[in-house]
Amino acid sequence: MNQLVVIPARGGSKGVPRKNIKLLGGKPLIHWTIEVAREIFPDEVICVSTDDEEIQSVVEQTGLKIPFLRPEELATDIASSYEVLLHAVFFYEKRGYYPDTLILLQPTSPFRSAKQIKEAIDLYVRGVEMIVSVKETKANPYYVLREEDENGFLVKSKESDAIRRQDVPKVWELNGAIYVINIKALKSKSISDFTKVKKYVMDEVSSHDIDTMLDWKIAKTIQQSINGV
Q1: For position 109, which CATH number holds?
Q2: What is d(CA 34, CA 143) in angstroms, rounded to the nearest whole number?
Q3: Which of 84, 181, 194, 210 is the most exposed place for a label (fewest CB within 10 A)?
Q4: Domain extent for 191
């Protein structure tokens, strides 16, 4: 298996400004993901994809070299993750390295472990397009989620006769922490069009994803708890 690890880190961030290099527990957020990736993979296959020179400088403080800065068209709010991933794959192919498996690790999930990444990779077998990390969602569409009908009344998102939360089917929420992707499948269609997808289940803490300032405050609390502060 030829693997390529992609850590996407765009400079623009609205929910938490400059979050990828904001200090969490005394080190830039992106360092958390770089460190866990290095527990498993050699530097040669770890690619931080960024458009931002300051992020590049912060990343290279770890000794990991950034092979390119993203082109301008992949640095906008509307640039898709799909395009960013393919750009990284094609860059390495042009240099003579042909990965067949892409491991996507977003820097906004600092609490995933190397053990979890390895376990997710172990689930990746022939015929699977993607392994994706999930957590059991609290916002179950059979129980608590509602939609408006044509008359403006709230109706269940998914019909069920269950009267207790325990009686409804489990529903899994993508947590954004780990993706193990078949590159051949990625070249043929968008991730959202994958049909052969299996889950890797993670706990609430390791699933924590930072998108808002509230998420950041919670992350600080988790980090302090982990370190016994």
Answers
A1: 3.90.550.10
A2: 38
A3: 194
A4: 3-134+172-226
